[in-house]
Every structure is written in C-alpha cells, then in structure tokens.
Amino acid sequence: MKKLCSLFLVFVLLFSTATTTFAVSDSDAKVAESNMLHELENVVLSSEGSYSYTAPDAGNFLIESVTGAVSIMGGVATIEFGDNIVPIPSFDYYKIVDQSGNLRFYQADVSKDPDQTSNFAYIGLYIEDGPVYSIHVHYAVDAENKLYNIMVSLTQEQFLYFTEDSVEICLGTDAVSQRLKASGRVHTHGTFENQAASNSNGGGVENNPPVMPYALNNVAANSYDSYTNTDGIIHSYESNYFGEYFLEDDWTITDDPIVNIIPKELCFILGEHIYVGKEYGFFIRVVVDTIAPSDYAVDVLVFDITHSTPSFTTTETGSSKVTPLFQYKYRAAYANSLSSDVDPSLSRVVFPHLHYDFPEYFLKDVGFKFSLDNPTALNPSDSGYVPSEDDGAFMIQTRVNASGVGLKKKNGSFAADTAMFALGFVPYLGTGLSVFSYAHDVYNGFGNQHYFYARPYEFNNELNISTLKTNSTDQIEEYGNLIKSQSVKLTADPSEPRLIHVGGYVEAKYVIARKSGSNYNKIRVITSISVSVVEDDTELILGLFESGELIEYGRCTGTYETGTYKRLNNVSLSGRTTVTIPANSQTNVIRIVPQTSGSYQFTTSSSSGDPHFRITNATTGAAAVSATDDIDGANNRNATLTITLTAGNIYYLEAFRYGTPYNYNLIMHPTS
C-alpha cells in the first residue's frame, strides 16, 4: 500500500528523470481532453486536516498507451494488455447524461470493496461510432514502474456487463457540468490536398466526395441576406428544432432546420465559410467525414447580432452586440450514400452528426465601425456641405463591454495536485476523491493533454473608452470636421487574446450629440461588424512545454444600415425612372440629383396598403414637401406629387407606407 502511494507521488518529479516515454493513440483522443472537477479536490483536502505532503525522492516512472482485450468468465471481467492479465474489480459506475437525457459516457467511481487495493487508477466507458463500445483503463504495474493507458473495444454484451447497474448523473448548465461535458469533446483538424474523387463503386457512383482545395472561403457580402435579415428561428432553434430531422414515420431522414439558418449549399463546399449579417452571422467548417468518407462533417457556429439605434430626443446612445448562440457538428450527405431511407424529394440531406456537440470555436478580435449620416440633409461628401451648418448627429464617445475567456493557461501547482491525486487515489485508500477529480489529472496530465490548463474567465465593462470633444464648435476646431465615424475594437495583448465563446458576448456602444439648438432629429446609422473565427489548440506538454497554436480560420466583415433610415440606389434623374421600394420597417431614402431643371411627377404604384412619400431639397434646406395621398379614389391607396426640381441640387425622397409594409413601385418622370 505504501509502495503504491509513493509510486504515484513520484509523478511530481517525473520531469526531472533522464528517461520518460509517452505515447497517445488516436483512439485516446476523446478522453484525452478531459477537464474534471478541481472543486472536489479542494473539498477533500479541507476534510483531511491531518494530511501533509512531503515531496518524494526523485523517481523514474513511465507511461505507456496500449490496446488490450477484455474477457468475462464466471461473472468476472479480466483485462489483458502486453504480458499482463488482470481481473477488473467490482466498481460503481456513473452514467453521465445531459439535460435532454442524451448519454455522454460512463465512468467508474470507488470500488464496491473498501479493502480493494488493486492498481486500477481509472476506468471510463464510451459509446463510439455506434454501435461500437470502448473501455479506457489506467493500470499501474509496480514491477515495471509504469502506468498503462489501455484502450479496449467491447462487444455490446461486455459493455452492458459494466454499465447495467450504473447510477445516472445529469449534467446541467453549471460550471462543473460544463467541464464534465468537455471530457467527451474532440476537435477535427487536418488539411486536405487538392485531388479528384476516387474509388468508384463500379456503378458510376463515387464513394468519396470530390475533395477541393482546403482554404478559407469568405462568403460574398450580402449574398445571403435572406438568411441574415431576421432572427427567424435562431433563438428557439436549440429548444424547439435541433435534431428534428425525421419525418413522421421516424425512419425517413430529412433536413435538420439548421438549413433554415445557414445556406444548405455551404455544407457541401470544403473549407471554411464566414458570414456576418445584420441580425446574425455564422461560421461553417466543412471537412470529409472520417466516419463516412462519402459524406462531409460540418461544424457550424451561429452568433446573434443585435443593434440599439439612438433616436433624438429619447436616447443618445447606440450599440451593436455579438453573442455566440450555439455550435454543432452536422453530417452533410448525398442521398445515395445513406443506407437508411431519405426524404425522396432530397438529393442531399443535412442532419446532426453522431458527434454533434464536439465543435469548439471562438470569435476573436471582434471589431465595430459606426458611421452617422444625415438621411435628408447634406453630408461631408456632398458639394456645398459646411460643417458649422450641420445640425445632424456626431460622435462624442465610444466604449466596449465584453465577456469571454482567454487562452488556456497553466493553473495550479503540479506538486500539490499530485499530492491531492495520491490522497484520493481510488481504490488505494478507499475514500476521498471520486474518479471525476483524478480523471482530470490522469487524462489531462499523464495523458499528455492540457495538464493544468484552464481558460481564465474574463469580464470587462467599459473597455477602450474614447471620449471626443462634446460640442460641435470644439470638434470642428480640434479636428476640422464633425466626427461622423468611429472604429471600435476589442483590443487585447496579441499573446493573450480574449476569446468570445457560447455564453459570452462583446458589445460596442457609441454616444452621439447634436448642435446646440438643432431641431434636426433624423439619424442614419451604417454599422460594420468584423469577426475572426479561431480554435484554441494550445496545450501544455507534461506540465512544462507549451505546444499547439491558436488556429485562425479567417475574418469576415458585414456592413448594414442599422438605423431607422435605409438608403436605396442614388438616382441621376433625367427621363422616366422606376424604383422598387422594399417592404421593411425602415424609412427608405432615395438620393435624387436631377440633370435638367423643370417639373417632375412622382407616383406610387401599389395594389395594396397605403404607400406615401415626401421630398426634401437638401441643398437649400427647404422644408419637406409631402405627396398627395389616396389619388386613385380608394382609401389608403397610392400617392402622387408634382414638383419643380433644380438641376444639380440634391434631393432626398423619403418613401414609407402607413401600416403593414409592402413593397411597391415609385415612378418618376418629367411632366413635359
């Protein structure tokens, strides 16, 4: 017993030995990223007041990853690895499930026999790509000064032998549960070379999808507005839609509703795709699926975008906020590659992957740019603009709020944690820590993955405050103009960036003012949001050597008019022109510069609703002229205006609709 305790205490001096070997097989990946319960360790230490730790003499202890075999005879399970054949004691097992009842994994707790002194340090059971089962075991062999990291594939019968009497533990939304969930998480990495599809099955159908160059593909700006002009189902997706991809017979596979949130075609294009919209954005990473090479594995991160627009005189502060909502892995398949029934109307189908909750991505260096514009008055780029006569809004302050995490960092003392591990080493002492606590040490430390690595939680309010002159006269004197545009970025030390994750956010705010005595209260806001998507692959090897990197997947910017006014195409008016006014809640503005002075007629053409408009001469600053309503004899119908325009002057036409918005045409032409 004493020898065993000393054996594991010497881990603290493992790094000083002349010879240390270590290997981790690919099959260990799922368990290698565990991040278990530090809190339990502290509880145990506080309850063991008589325990004190003395550093052991230098030792030489080896760790080796191997595959093994399990056999069950006479109700007794035996594991065979290398030259060793060892009976597995009777342990208590926990069945770890999430709040929806989905199975995560099983894990051994203390031995049912308190006098048990075998060398088993850890046992965990997993359902792999199913139905395939595996058991992961850590076993110490004293004579070899070695801890074996053993992986064994199990039959269903063997799996049930270990798990049939398990006690269920439900994962919640608390921090401890989040770390437990991380124990089953893996990341998909890799670069795919440019090559043609191969391995035809002889019938003209290829087993593998065409493999394209593995590169960043930024989605063209505004190309998917139908996906990002409304929140739609993104806020209710997880609770109401996720996984609802079967038809009523429960056998036929159809598209998961994620295709209502992201463009389906992107799920079939290898590489990374980033899009920033007005209401939300998304990141998609597509690789060849390692489980089914004829299909694609698709990681999706969806983040919400919200805007608060200032409006004189009620508020002088505006903001934009980016909040990651969820990230899941999906399987994108051609219908003929699936053995199960598929909705016959679909040639391609997208549905949750077996490892649906494995992706882990972050937003980095989120940036904002806010620009103010006078929607019906002259602006700095217009001929005849005079800053001192500008009665519109200008910037006087910007700032950032953020909640996120940092890069993983070494956290705690290796020596002290080894002491805690030995103290609660099950089943050597029979009491103390559950396997949850020391599994973190074994898999993350001895398993050469993220030993003592944890993400520091970072919350900051009012970051990067920039305050400008607060009145128009001082701004013009100081800067030569009114400040109408400001960039705001979540800046940080490049070596320690703040990463915005699901549950975090970054929000930029801007404060505006207007000239003293001004009655001009119209504000047009143009907002740009830029994000980088990254994966934190950093780790600490054996507690000493840093490895890995922050993997950058590219950057994308989206620019939208987020205020109550939206600028449509400029019109250089000469002959007859027709403009379609879209159905939206904003006031649509058309900038008109007539080429010839004279009389012009403007008329709406709509079969429903109550369209209306008014025209302002921005060059002269004259009051707006409203159209005549209900010109076609029907209530709440079309409007018209005949007005004399001066060549070269800048006019703004504000087009809107009373009541529910519908699109309609606006026809303009000279009267002679």
Protein described:
There is one protein chain. Strand 13 (296-308) and strand 14 (317-334) form a beta hairpin. The longest helix is centred in the middle third of the chain and has 12 residues, at 435-446. With 672 residues, this protein is mainly β. Helix 3 crosses helix 8 (414-423). 37% of the residues are buried. The radius of gyration is 32 Å and the shape is elongated. The protein contains 10 helices and 37 strands. The strands form 8 sheets. Strands 11, 12, 13, 14, 15, 17, 20 and 23 form an 8-stranded antiparallel sheet that branches. The protein has a 7-stranded mixed sheet with strand order 1-9-8-7-6-5-10. The protein has 4 domains: 2-187 and 410-453, no CATH class; 225-359, no CATH class; 367-408 and 455-487 and 503-562, no CATH class; 568-670, Sandwich (Jelly Rolls).
